[in-house]
Amino acid sequence: MAFFSAGLTFASVPDTQSSAASLLAKYVSLGERLHHNPFQRALVLDSSESADDVAGDIYALVNYPFDAVSKALNDPEHWCDVMILHVNTKYCRATSNQAPTVLTVYIGKKTPQPVKDAYSIEFAYRLGAATPQYLEIRLNAETGPLSTRNYRIQLQAVPVGNGQTFLHLTYSYDFGLAGRLAMKTYLATIGRGKVGFTLTGTPSKGPPEYIGGMRGVVERNTMRYYLAIEAYLGALATSPPLQLQKRLQSWFTATEQYPRQLHEVSRPAYIAMKRSEYLRQQTSP
Asked: Which of 75, 95, 243, 262 is a Cys-bridge partner for 255, taking CB atoms 3.0 to 4.6 Å apart?
C-alpha cells in the first residue's frame, strides 16, 4: 500500500524543516537524560496533566537507520501490527477507501474477549511529513472509553547519525467532568494501586514512590505503545513467518523490565491471547 495515498499531507516544507530542527535540538538537550536513566534503554518519559487533558511524551534513541524506521512506520497496516501488541488492544483494522485512512481499534480487557464486547476507537491516520530527514505521523480519535475524547498519538523521527534514529512519541487525550468521574471510579477499583514511572518520593526506608492517578495511567500506556514500536522495529530483520512471534516475545520481555508498572499477565497467557487476536485481525472483515 502506498503511504502517500493513505492520508493527507498537511505540513509545508518550511514547517517540516523547522520541526526536524526542533526535534534535533531536543535530542541534543536530552543527551544526559537519554543515557543516564532508570529505563535500561536510551529513553526519557515525561507526562503532564491539566484541568481537562493528560499527556505522555517519550523521547528515545533507537539503533535503526532512519530510512528503515520511516519505511516501517509510514504504513497504516503496519501500525495495526504495532497496536495489537498492547495488552488491551483486541483488534485493529486499517480502512483506506476514504481520506484520511481510518484505523478501527478495539480496546478491552487484558484477557481474551470478543471484539463485540470491546470499545471501538476510530483513529484518523494522517501523514504529516515523510522526507529523507523527518517523519511525522498523527492519529486522532474524537472519542474514547470512559467518557474520554480527542485522542492524539503522534510520532516524529529524525536521523542522528551512526545508523540511529531519534523518536518522539506523544499520547494524550481530553476529558470533561464525566470523563474525570469515570477515571476516578476506575482508579478507585480496577486501577487501584497502579502507578506510572515518575518518582514522587524516595523514602529512606521502603520502595520508591511513583506517580499514580491519571498521569500514572497515561505514562503506562505511552510506554506500552512505545515498546510496541520498538518490538515491531526489532523484528524486521527476522524472516516474515517468524516476525509475529519475535514481536510478541520482545514486547512482553520489554514490559517485564518494569513489573511494578506494566506486569499484567503471564508470558504464556499473553502470547496465546495475542496470537489468537492477531489471527482474528487478519481474517475478520
From this structure: 262
